[in-house]
Amino acid sequence: xxxxxxxxxxxxxxxxxxxxxxxxxxxxxxxxxxxxxxxxxxxxxxxxxxxxxxxxxxxxxxxxxxxxxxxxxxxxxxxxxxxxxxxxxxxxxxxxxxxxxxxxxxxxxxxxxxxxxxxxxxxxxxxxxxxxxxxxxxxxxxxxxxxxxxxxx
Length: 153
Known about the structure:
This is Electron transfer flavoprotein subunit alpha. This protein is α/β, with parallel strands linked by helices and 153 residues long.
C-alpha cells in the first residue's frame, strides 16, 4: 500500500505447520480478588516514588481491600502489574468503596470504577477532574493524607 488510502486484496495462506500448544499454566494472582473486594484503593501518578505505594498498601490492609492503579503506573513507570489497571482497557470494578489516591480522574480511568457504591478521592490538585466524579473528596498530598487516614482507622 502506498499510504494514500490504498486497499490491497491478499489471499490468506495457511501456515506450513499447524500451531501446536507446547504447555500452559494458570496465571498466578497475588493479593485480593478485586472483583470481590468490598474496598479498592487505587494509586495514580500522585505517588512520586514507587516506595510511596506502601502508603496505599497500608490503607488496603486497614480496609481489608485490594490495591489497584491507573494506567500510568502499569505502562508508564511499570510499578504495578497490568492486572491491577482500572479503566477502559483494564478492570471494571464495583466495590462498595473505591478510594482514588493521586488519580486525576480522566474519563478513561473513571469508567472502570463508576459502578462503585462510593468513590472517595484524594488529590493535591483542587481542580482535578476526579473531584467532579466522586462522592467525597479530600484535597491533599497522598504522602500526608494516607498516613493520617490509616492512623485514624
